[in-house]
## 1
Amino acid sequence: MGLELSDLPTVDAALNAASAALLTLGFIFIRRKNIRAHKACMLSAVATSMLFLVCYLTYHYFHGTTHFTGHGAVRPLYFAILISHTILAAAIVPLVATTLYRALRRRFDLHRRIARWTLPAWLYVSVTGVVVYWMLYHLGR
Ligand code: HEM
């Protein structure tokens, strides 16, 4: 029972959920001034998101796109979520890189300033990633 290509979307959704959990934990830790735990969570969230990107691109390279089959009110809702998810997903790449770079250079004042944009955008992307997966593969099936 190996991992098949058709399992990848589920793996992708799990990785998105893991990123969301790690980002939330990382935020809780820094609010409690636990820098070590904050750093560990955020670096794990970066790793999880990078793994997601590899799985996501692999799947779409071999499989192509999956069309949404829902009708009625869920259709515009699905596309609104998908479009905002996609635009923000592209935007967070340079945001995350800059946030991480500033932290690793120990420019924590600047890190904090950009991180306040990076964190909510990244959380939105990972949570809507799970929502899009759920709507695409499980809604009404
Ligand atoms: C790219 C992933 C990261 C994100 C999204 C992130 C997010 C954040 C956020 C939102 C804050 C502000 C918390 C508040 O409002 O009080 C913060 C503060 C902080 N982060 Fe990160 N962080 C990341 C990576 C790191 C890493 C790798 C370190 C390494 C040491 C780090 C160290 C710190 C420190 C020391 C603060 C406190 C800064 C201050 O209060 O002046 N962060 N981070």
## 2
Amino acid sequence: MITRLAGVRVDTGQETEFWVVDGRVTYSRVAGEQTVVSGWILPGLVDAHAHIGLDAGGAVDRTTSRTYARADLAAGVTLIRDLGSPADLRWAHDEPGLPRLITAGRHIARPRRYIRGLAVEVEPEDLAAEMRRQALAGDGWVKLVGDWIDREAGDLTPLWPVEAVREGIVAAHAAGARVTAHCFGEQSVFELVRAGIDCIEHGCGLDADTCSLMAARAVALVPTLDNWQIFPGLADQGEARYPAYAAHMRALYARRTATIRQALAAGVPVYAGTDAGGTRAHGTLGPEIAALAALGGPEFALGAASWRAREWLGAGTLDEGAPADLLVLPRDPRRDLTALAAPSLILLGGVPYGPSNASGTTATPSRVR
Ligand SMILES: [Zn+2]
């Protein structure tokens, strides 16, 4: 059965009509029996920071990864940028019914400077070689841990000398990958942006000058804003042994709204990511979109989670011949973001997601009109 989609494309604001044939979009009229689905049509959502290969205890098996990825798809996420997995996820590219996946190989950290069991751990002299290795293992991204608690200093400090990371970024770029880093504090983000990094995760310590530089160089920011709610808990845990760290985390948390507003005002390209995996549940992009909308408005937040993120990652939108990865919503999400919570239809490569195919079998398209 061929599906005809009719309604308003949320990314362009234009009335549209197109068909899904063999999993792809076509604007050439198709004859024959058709299922018609109408509503507000949104290019598939992107979770630009998630982890389907780990949980709080380390690497997970394939069955668990599948469950995570399906939970994301149920929330309308048809593309995941997986930012670090101790388990090899390459198998997931070939499995039907899972969101498309862009992997970054494993996190790169220094010994004893990140969550135990997640990262490949190297000293600075081996950083460039490891970044090249992870660049070749992943799908065009390398993930560094930029800063973490330094137990000797009793506070967040950068993991890497600037010269080592600069060399590593050159090596990753030469291997065809972009580089991003986990940064909670001020110093790591200051140094890494100047060292030529392509993206920053969290970015809680951004200052005005660094925001201007990021905007000028189109360095992206994935704030994982809704997940900053864990900061007070991290501060409480560290309070007794590391009071300076605890105070620092609380200060970063207290000015979180001002920090992201500053990035938006400077024109930093901001994208939506959940950081699902470690402690945060999968399928939670909706609250992140709402958090971004509270700062930049719904149109901005929807773009950050859909068409702008797709273009940034080279996934395209709903042009002729594109894979039919999309949501149909019963109301205009630019006016009412709660429409995202109850899509009439989610298509991944033209295959509808729904309770009837929640375990991966095929289903018939839902008829809306
Ligand atoms: Zn993460």
